[in-house]
Amino acid sequence: MSTSIPMNGDVMEHWLLSGKSARISGLDLKPLAHPAMPSTPRRVVKGQAAVYFMQQSPHQNTWLIKKFTPSRRPSDTYLQAVSRCIPGQAEFFTCTQRRFLTAGHLDRRYSQYVSDGLPDWIEGTILMPAVPGSSWATIADSLREGELELSCEQRLRAALNLAVCIECLEAWECSHRDISLNNVFWAPDDRVYLIDLDSLYHKDLPFQSNTTVGTLGYIPPFTRSLDGQFDAACSWCPHADRFALAVMIAEFLLVGPDAPEAQEDGSLFSQAQLAQPEDDFVKSQVDALWRINRESGILLWKALHAAGFESCPAPVHWRAVLQRALGSNRRHACSSVVRNMPDGVSQVVCEHCGRPWRISQPRLESLRSKGSPILCGDCLQNQMLTWKAEQSQHERDHPLTQCAECHSAIRLHKDKLARLQSAGKSPLCRTCLEQKPSLRNSFCPRTIHY
Ligand SMILES: [Zn+2]
Ligand SMILES: [Zn+2]
Fold first, then answer.
1. Which of 54, 29, 96, 128 has the alpha carbon at shortest distance from 359?
2. What is the DSSP letter of 267?
3. For residue 21, which of 113, 117, 104 has the smallest C-alpha distance?
4. Which residue among 7, 29, 197, 230 is least enclosed by CB atoms within 10 Å?
5. Model pLDDT for residues 33-53, shown as the tens digit of each residue
6. Proximal ligand: closest to the CA of 382
7. What is the mean pLDDT of the chain?
């Protein structure tokens, strides 16, 4: 049954309080509450967008709905193209598996929650799966507080995985352009996932002037325009992640309970320090890295003294250095390295069980646009059974009957039908009902199903 929302009411708040799921893109989703405020939807508001946290039932996977600030929304063509330009590895699955929602992705028939405001609200939003693990911002905080310990080997492995992610992006002629503490996630198996790819550079995409130049603490000092201001156009180029990659790897290897206090929003270096590589503090960190691993110390020094992206160490250099540091133990060096997929094939993550599997790109494209869940073979089989059972249940609850005016076949909920009959009224299809406003008060048109 549909419920109306007060004119100034908040669609997400209303939905949260209902406690019910709506079926969007074949997934049963409901908003998650703010951990400290049970009647407020959990969301993160960044410059470009508000991101709402959703829970998928019954699998308990977390999803995100991104609603752009209208003035900061890149063009539709750009957003669609981004998902097609990035490499088809699971490390980018939050972007390769995202859906551009329209009101048509909302399946009212199988939604427990239905409201008048929701179809308009979801139009133009982006639905994306949450990645496993925690952001580097969260992990770095816990490491500084001494609540979390990571071995040198784990750190080297995650650093290696990050270098390989960037190598992969470069191989596909992409730059993320905002590699920073909130956009890099570290999973329990030391795999690294990248999020927020909506500032992506690719040679075939037009420059997006409303995208970010980066995050303080990670922006190369050489991306200023002639007037001394940071300029997004300066990082709209190949290899634009190399400087931030060096800083992130240094953080992965250095941050712990003895690390110096965080700068900016949690970074190792302040933006001002990055402009002065001969600063005592910066030198002390290069030395500290050098003591952990000499070659990494040298690569960081090179990045900090670089005059442009081309003179920063390439990800392939980092990969070689980190693989050597992990030693001759091939098990560690190779177990989690991103591998290039064959042409036309993407690695995806099952949206029920979380298992990675492979899919052809045309099939992925069709599932995404149709709004079907992306499921591994086993989960798809189970889902088909559930859908079949749901459909028969729906048909039992909504028996076929005939419109009294045009005689077309319609389905009407059995309780509604019984009420109409006992009141001596006849069922009407939606079209006939809309043509006869005088009859509208007799029953609610939304309960008629075709
Ligand atoms: Zn599965
Ligand atoms: Zn009719």
1. 96
2. B
3. 113
4. 7
5. 999 999 999 999 877 789 999
6. 1
7. 89
